[in-house]
Each structure stands twice: as structure tokens, then as C-alpha cells.
Amino acid sequence: MEWDSSDDGLGGSMEALPYLSESAQSMPSTTNISEHEFSCHCCYDILVNPTTLTCGHNFCRHCLALWWESSHKNECPECREKWAGFPKINILLRDATDKLFTEVVQRRRAEIQDNPKISRSLLAFQRYGDNLGRSKPNQHKGAGFFFSGVLTALTCVAVMVLVYHWSSGVVEQQDMLISKPVSHWTPEDVVSWLELLGPWAQLYREPFQQESVNGRLLLMLGDEELLKAPYSIDNQAHRRAILAELDRVKTLGVKPPQNLWEYKVTNAGKSLFLLYALKRSPRLTLFYLYLFDYSETFLPFLHTCCPAITNIGQSVESSFLNTQMEPSWRQWGEFLVKYLLLPYQLIAEFAWDWLAVHYWTSRFIIVNAMLLSVLEGCALWRLWARASIRAMPRKMWNHLWKMLSQGFAFALLWPFFPQFVCNCLFYWALYFSPIINIDLVVQQLMHPETQAL
User: Fold this and answer.
1) Structural domain 176-252, CATH architecture
2) Regarding predicted confidence, which is higher, 160 or 200?
3) What is the DSSP letter of 83?
4) Where in the numbering of this chain does the SAM domain appear (predicted)?
5) In this structure, what DSSP letter does residue 39 have?
6) CA-CA distances (angstroms) from residue 164 to 175, 268, 361, 417?
7) C-alpha distances in angstroms, 76 versus 42, 87, 299?
């Protein structure tokens, strides 16, 4: 009896299985499943490779990639909540949509594969995720760690040196003529000023020493006085060069700066502004110099970067005079081409001309100009690759507004900054900026598609 009752129970359960299976098979049909419940809120179509964000919203993988590429923001397209990490495909939801809407999903996947723009966006989005995943375990390793260590060491050394100079009062010896009024020049100052004009001026050092020409007497010299004894400067080009520089001294009241460090001493705030402005926006900065600082800064800069055609046998003093003249049409044409296409090349050529005076500083500037040119080229390539050329006027306007606002803020806040802070900023931009730009260029060249504009 016990075995019979067991068999009856087993048989009853076996007989109930078909009813259970039929009930399970009929569940999808009884539930009211609609396409709206499995639709993407970006394209309003069936989800393809549904990706779930941290906020809980689901989107097609390619829709999320297009949104990330166009907005350059890591946030939900619907609720604007930022997502954490890198979004992954919801496997359970993907399998459900593939089974329920097989034909629609297959059709949409074929359309996505045939669209090169979507394929490029998906590739860039995936590379962004790969870089994000690699940066977490390797954030203290590799080239980034090396460059951060170098920057930290150089910064500490620079700060210690500047603190020592600032606290002990040890100031770098500069040419005192750039701050001493010409009327107070001694005969030794006049001879020093004459020697700075060039090697050709050494010929007339002895007459100036014998006559004990001081600053006041120097201001009274003219073409006739230089031609007569005891000066006897018979060479007309030499006289014109001395008189041209003497006119600049009369106008400024002091000796004009002739190198970077003298320019920094006489124009502390202006030199810091130009250093950062030329790095951020060289075209706008050169245009500013053309409008407001033409004769003192812009004209020598143009003659240095785009020199006039000279004869092979032209003397040094004639070249000196050419830098005080108005540029020719050929010089203007060469300058405008470089200004529009390669503005950083102008800065590199200007630094190259000072190579004999500023050996290492000029090299830092040249390297930095090359790196900035590469970064600008990569930015233009991204605009072209992403078909965002139409956004160029808007970006240019935003850049113009940003530079004007920053320049205005600098003009207001500059008098309140201590000189020590300004020196730190100046030397940081001059010597440490190339090291930072090397890392940026490496990132751009290795993964150009993943860089945000």
C-alpha cells in the first residue's frame, strides 16, 4: 500500500507537469509587453545593446556614444545625473530585447554597422572607456608618474631658489641703464651704452672716454657733432645707427631693454601677461601688440621673425637700422601667412634669434612652441574628423570672450600680487610648461579620438 500511494503521488505530479508547462509558456502572451517599455529615450526605438547608467536609465549603446561625443559630458541624457566609471551593457536586458524583438533588433544592428559616423563614435567611446580603466590601476606608474616626479622636483628647486633670493635680498644683477635716467648717466654708463650697440661701436669708445661724455652731453649730440672731431664718425651708417638708438633713449628716458631679462625688469606685469597670452592665444596677443604696442614690441618682433632681404655684404649697423624701419610688403605678406597658419612658428623664430643671448631659455621656448603647434593641429583635426567645423565661429567667439575677460581680470588684480608670486608664475610658464605639454602631446597622438575639445 505504501508503494502504491507513492506511485499515485508521483503519477499525479507527472500528470500536472503538462499543465504547468503550458501555463509557463502562456505567461509572455498574458503579460502586456509593449515596445514602449523597451525603447530608448534618445532615439525612441527598440533598445540595441542597452546600456544602464548609475541613475537607472537605459539607452542604446550607440545613442549614448553619440551623446558623449557631441556634449563631451559624462551625464545622463535624460536626468543629467553624472555617471560613475564607464557604463556597461546590461546583458539581461539585451537578451530580453533580442528574444522579444528579434527582427527589429537585427534590422537596427545592420543599420548601425552601415553607418560610419556611428561606428566611429562607438570606437571613440570604447577607447575612452579603455583609457579610463587603464588609468585607475596605473595612475601611479608609467610616464605620468615620471613627469609628475620631475615637475615636483623642479618646482621645489625653483621655489627654494626664489625664496632664498626674496628673503636674503640677493637680486640678479641687471643692466642699471634700463632704470637709470639718461640725464644721470656717468661717462662709464655712456661707454657701456655705446658698446651694447654692437661690435662696430668699439671703434668710437676711446673718443667718448677722452671727452668724458655723460648723459646730459650725450643728449645734445647730433649728426654734425658726431661727424666732427673728436668723434670723427665718418661712416654714415654708423652715425645713423647711433642717432637712431639715441632717439629711442631720448623718447624713453632710459636705455631700451635688449633681452628678455631686461624686458622683464622694466615691464614685470606686461612680460607675465604676454608669456601666458602668447601660449593661450598667439593670434589675439600679436593683434593686441599691433594695436597698442606697435613701435616698442611689435615692430622689432616682425623684423626678427620676417627679416627684410639684405645684401650679403651688408654691415651689422645697417641691419640694426632696418629693425627701426617700416616693414616691406614682402615682410607683411610673410608675417600674415605665418600669423594665420603657424603663429607658434613666429615665437620659435623670435626665440631662435636670441639663442646667443639666452641659450637654454630660447631652447625651452622653441620646444614649447613646437609642442603647442602639435596640440593646435590635433584640435583642428578633431574638429574636422567629427564634422564640427560649423561650430568653429561659436568656439572662436567663446575663446575671444574668455581671453578678454581673463585679460581684464589680470589688469585689475596685477597690482595686488606680490612680486614673489609673479616670479613663480613667470618661471613656471617659461620652463615647466614644455614638460607638461610633452605629456599632453603623447596623449593626443596615442588616442586622438578620445580627447575632448
Assistant:
1) Orthogonal Bundle (1.10)
2) 200
3) P
4) 185-252
5) B
6) 22, 20, 21, 19
7) 11, 11, 52
